[in-house]
């Protein structure tokens, strides 16, 4: 890896008896799109706040752009763009004014900020809403404005905490498109998500986090290769019959995962596994063959589903 | 990998150098950026603020100077009632603004309109957020109190040439009360009516028992310590020294200033701590 822009060793954060982040190691290369995938409460946001140089680590080492956030918080933050989980735009200011005011925090000249604000409104597809009140924007628009605001200082690293949580599918796709463009321009992206499709779309590499620890690391494809099979067959027999059926089909595929509502059969060939099940005399109510996803990786690693 | 691998190498140093250079301006001017933001945010309630600046003095001065003063034809302590009450009204106006600006706006910044977190995610420190908020407060108080002072002059209620110093006395009063209140409101995480309690059990009694409308000595002796503890009393007395040359021992005047400056400093220090604790946990 080229010289990392973020480097963490045994990074730890505790609140009293509670360990939010339990000694994690990771590096992020310049221009890379790096993801933290895990369920709510896994320690993703805490990690992001430490990387964002606002939360002080309890133990371990952390270097961002070669600087220690304990001594160089403001310097590091001058090079970051931050999109927090909860929008924190100033609702008392209008859309464009939010960008103007925020740009000043970086000590940028007003003329530069004004130029960038117009370009960013264009990028965020909010030009016609420039004078609108923040409150009058939809959830997706607020999110895009928050991203635009995070870009006002042309950051080296953009931190996105659950960027599309709570958005409808269309708004999510618009946002992904915008983030993809940033990635193409070479901005380093670090994002947390509990959506596997988001991680697959946006991340070059990711770590799977659970209970403050890193369970696995790699590209989405590599993780799927390592921890899952090529295909997954989902079969349903009705909730009271799943367990019994699972016993009879134990030899089918590489591995079975019995969930309350369905059985997942991990195999290289889903159709062939379905035939094998039918030959056993079992008749599933529904069946579906799909490609393996990060959801399956997570299930394998933790025994739990990503979205509860 | 070991800790040694974290040592920045050539290209990383370039990043670090760029960061260190970009950090200079926010480290130096961050508080002023915040003040600028908060002044811009005032646009929303500018009509209210203007009314407060011009309307309140006029209403109070007419009611007290024309109405109440006619009941006190002999004046107070050798000056007319209007001259007596004018510096107190200025200090009270400063207190009112400080009480407003450091109540909901502080709580909102953490909760309903959580811009403090956004400011801190940029290169602005918690202390700078507090200082910027205080700068905006000071600007708002100075402007309001100066307008008040101008109107009082029109009413002919400032006999002393050093009277303009009453503007500073009132501003110091407002800042001391503002910093003290902010140190409390910055700890509130749930709105359980604390603001109304503050208004009812702190600000209003201060207004009534700080020698505003009558000299503190009129109160029974056991109630007078209430006045001595009140920043508004110290600010009002200080204003009177400047505006009409109230005679009091020098040590007492120094005590007024010392009390207000100390309250401001302690309030500011505590507010810094509370902001840092909430933003950087």
- Characterize the overall form of chain B: elongated
Alpha-carbon distance between the two ends of chain B: 28 Å
Share of residues in helices of chain B: over 70%
Q: What is the tally of helical segments of chain A?
A: 11
Helices and strands of chain A, in N-to-C order?
EEEHEHEHHHEHEHEEHEHEEHEH
Q: Using the CA coordinates, give the radius of gyration of chain B.
A: 22 Å
As a percent range, the share of helical residues of chain A equals 25-40%
Helix and strand content put the structural class of chain A at: alpha/beta
Give the class of chain B from helix and strand content and strand pairing: mainly alpha
Number of E-state strands of chain A:
13
Shape of chain A: globular
Structure description:
- Chain A is of the alpha/beta class.
- Chain A contains eleven helices and 13 strands.
- In chain A, 36% of the residues lie in helices and 26% in strands.
- In chain A, strands 5-6-7-3-8-9 form a six-stranded mixed beta sheet, with helices on both faces. A four-stranded antiparallel beta sheet of chain A has the order 11-12-10-13, with helices on one face.
- In chain A, β1 and β2 form a beta hairpin.
- The relative contact order of chain A is 0.14.
- Chain B is mainly α.
- Chain B is elongated, with a radius of gyration of 22 Å.
- Chain B is 73% helix and 0% strand.
- Chain B has eleven helices and no strands.
- Classes of the chains: A alpha/beta (308), B mainly alpha (281).
- Chains A and B meet through β1, α2 and α3 of A and α1 and α5 of B.
């Amino acid at each position: 890896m080229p010289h990392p822009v973020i480097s963490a060793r045994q990074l730890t954060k505790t609140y009293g008896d509670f360990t939010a982040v339990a000694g994690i190691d990771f590096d992020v290369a310049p221009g890379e799109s790096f993801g933290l995938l895990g369920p709510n409460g896994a320690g993703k946001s805490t990690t992001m706040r430490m990387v964002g140089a606002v939360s002080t680590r309890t133990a371990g080492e952390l270097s961002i752009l070669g600087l220690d956030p304990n001594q160089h918080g403001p310097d590091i933050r001058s090079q970051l763009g931050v999109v927090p989980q909860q929008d924190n735009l100033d609702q008392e200011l209008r859309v464009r004014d939010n960008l103007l005011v925020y740009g000043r925090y970086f000590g940028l000249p007003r003329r530069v900020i004004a130029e960038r604000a117009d370009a960013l409104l264009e990028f965020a597809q909010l030009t016609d809403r420039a004078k609108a009140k923040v409150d009058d924007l939809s959830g997706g628009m607020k999110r895009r404005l928050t991203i635009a605001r995070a870009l006002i200082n042309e950051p080296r690293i953009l931190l996105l905490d659950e960027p599309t949580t709570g958005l409808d599918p269309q708004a999510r796709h618009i946002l992904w498109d915008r983030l993809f463009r940033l990635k193409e321009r070479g901005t380093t992206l670090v994002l947390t998500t509990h959506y596997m499709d988001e991680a697959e779309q946006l991340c070059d590499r990711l770590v799977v986090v659970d209970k403050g620890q890193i369970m696995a690391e790699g590209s989405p494809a590599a993780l799927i290769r390592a921890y899952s099979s090529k295909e997954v067959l989902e079969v349903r027999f009705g909730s009271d019959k799943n367990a019994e059926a699972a016993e009879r089909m134990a030899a089918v595929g590489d591995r079975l995962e019995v969930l309350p509502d369905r059985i997942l059969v991990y195999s290289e060939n889903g159709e062939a596994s379905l035939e094998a099940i039918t030959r056993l005399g079992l008749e599933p109510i529904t069946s579906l063959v799909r490609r393996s996803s990060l959801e399956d990786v997570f299930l394998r690693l933790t025994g739990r589903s990503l979205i509860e | 990998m070991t800790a040694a691998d974290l040592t920045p190498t050539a290209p990383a140093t370039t990043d670090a150098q760029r960061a260190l250079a970009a950090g200079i301006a926010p480290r130096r001017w961050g508080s002023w950026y915040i003040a600028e933001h908060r002044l811009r945010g005032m646009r929303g309630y500018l009509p209210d603020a203007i009314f407060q600046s011009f309307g309140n003095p006029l209403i109070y001065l007419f009611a007290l100077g024309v109405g109440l003063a006619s009941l006190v034809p002999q004046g107070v302590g050798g000056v007319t009632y209007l001259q007596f009450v004018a510096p107190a009204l200025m200090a009270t106006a400063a207190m009112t603004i400080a009480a407003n600006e450091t109540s909901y706006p502080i709580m909102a910044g953490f909760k309903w309109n959580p811009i403090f977190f956004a400011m801190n995610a940029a290169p602005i420190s918690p202390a700078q957020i507090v200082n910027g908020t205080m700068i905006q407060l000071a600007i708002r108080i100075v402007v309001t109190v100066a307008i008040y002072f101008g109107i009082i002059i029109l009413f002919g209620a400032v006999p002393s040439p050093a009277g303009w110093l009453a503007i500073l006395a009132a501003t110091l009063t407002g800042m001391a009360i503002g910093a003290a209140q902010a140190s409390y409101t910055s700890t509130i995480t749930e709105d359980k009516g604390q603001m109304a309690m503050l208004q009812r059990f702190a600000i209003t009694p201060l207004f009534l028992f700080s020698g505003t409308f009558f000299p503190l000595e009129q109160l029974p002796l056991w109630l007078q310590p209430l006045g001595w503890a009140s920043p508004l009393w110290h600010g009002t007395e200080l204003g009177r020294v400047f505006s009409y040359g109230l005679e009091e021992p020098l040590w007492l005047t120094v005590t007024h200033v010392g009390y207000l400056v100390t309250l401001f400093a302690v309030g500011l220090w505590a507010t810094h701590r509370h902001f840092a604790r909430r933003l950087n946990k």
